[in-house]
Amino acid sequence: MSTIDRQSPEESRRPAAWLLWSLATIALWGAWGLVSKVASEGVDAYVNQLLYTVGLAPLMVFVAWNVWKRSAKESVEARRRGVFWAFLTGILGGVGNLAFFEALVKGGKASIVAPVTALFPMVTVVLAMLFLKERLGRVQWFGLALAFVAIYLLSI
Amino acid sequence: MHIWLGFAALALIFWGITGVTQKLSTNSISSERSFLWFCWAMVALSAVVLLVARPHQGLATIVLVSSIAGGALNGLGAWTSFRALESGGKASIVISLISLYPLLTVLLAVVILGERLTWMQTTGACVAIAAAILLSLEGTPRPEA
After folding, report:
1. Cβ atoms < 10 Å from Cβ of B39
2. Which strand (E) or helix (H) includes residue A119?
3. Which of A114, A128, B21, B63 gets the most CB atoms within 10 Å of its CB?
């Protein structure tokens, strides 16, 4: 009998790794909204973005090491294409950061700006539908409608 | 309309576009390599920002630490989200679970910063979080005709 899929009682009591990583993500991104508001009390959006990049630097070194160590076998063409889109993602993400910081500098509460900006998948799903020809499920259509309701409620 | 809401909407639009460009990137390269080039773009953007930014001396320590911690927290969060997906978590569950992060921001802002929300804003924040979760769920592909 195979024991590959069998978990010991101790293992089954242990939370799944993906759950722990997901909870860590919630903690890290949740705290980001808070510290961004604190920072916005003393610096403008541009300086905030500069210091943000300073904070990102140590992780960059770690990730660069990982990428170098596990050099994936990607074709030159695929790598070029992937790097182009990743770089564009960074530029757009950075401009989005500037707008996020500016929203906080202009008096937006962290408790409102964070939920509003977390609605960004509404733009993604619409663009994916238009340009990637993806289809929306009923749940996503409902989510999209709720997103508009949320923005209306928060803008009153 | 409040001016901050306009900027929040702008952030939402730019981050929304990154959802597509990131997907196009990870179709061709690993998520870690994609993240690395995302970071390089942040460095490039910061070099441009340096031309318009006016860093001044005498920043309060709390402001300086919070601002730098912001980059570390957001970057680490992106990395842990990749790890969650690589550790066998289903994308539909992991992504909708991590969409709950604004809930923590709301909680921390109310408890630590003493922010107060009206009844309407509380409802709006709850609806926004529910919408973000629903939007993160992948639609079931329709069978081919």
Report:
1. 25
2. none
3. A114
| DSSP-derived 3-state class of residue B90 | coil
Per-residue model confidence (pLDDT) at position A11: 57
**Tens digits of per-residue pLDDT, A20-66?**
999 999 999 999 999 999 999 989 999 999 999 999 999 999 999 98
Q: Best mutation site among B1, B26, B28 for testing chain A: the one with the most A CBs within 10 Å?
A: B28
A15 in reach of chain B (CB within 8 A): no
- List the single residue in B21, B38, B53 with the smallest CB-CB distance to A50: B53
Put simply, whether B145 touches A (Cβ < 8 Å) is no
| B-contacting residues in A 75-114 (Cβ below 8 Å) | 78-79, 81-100, 102-104, 106-114
Q: What is the residue whose two structure tokens read 């769920």?
A: B137
CA dihedral (A54, A55, A56, A57) positive or negative:
positive
How far is the CA of B96 from the CAs of A9, A140, B2, B91, B99, in angstroms? 29, 12, 29, 8, 5
How remote is the C-alpha of B3 from its chain's centroid? 20
| CA gyration radius, chain A | 20
The confidence band for B141, taking pLDDT boundaries of 50, 70 and 90, is very low
- List of residues 6+ apart from B37 with CB closer than 8 A: A82, A83, A86, A87, A90, B25
**pLDDT tens sequence across B37-55:** 999 999 999 999 988 887 7
Q: Which of residues 22-81 of A touch B (CB under 8 A)?
A: 22, 24-39, 41-44, 46-60, 63-64, 66-67, 70, 72, 74, 78-79, 81
Entry pTM: 0.86
Chain A residue with CA closest to B95: the answer is A22
Cβ of B131 under 8 Å from any chain A Cβ? Answer: yes
Q: What is the pLDDT of residue A154?
A: 81
Q: Residue B5 and residue B12: Cα distance in Å, rounded? A: 10
What's the ipTM? Answer: 0.88
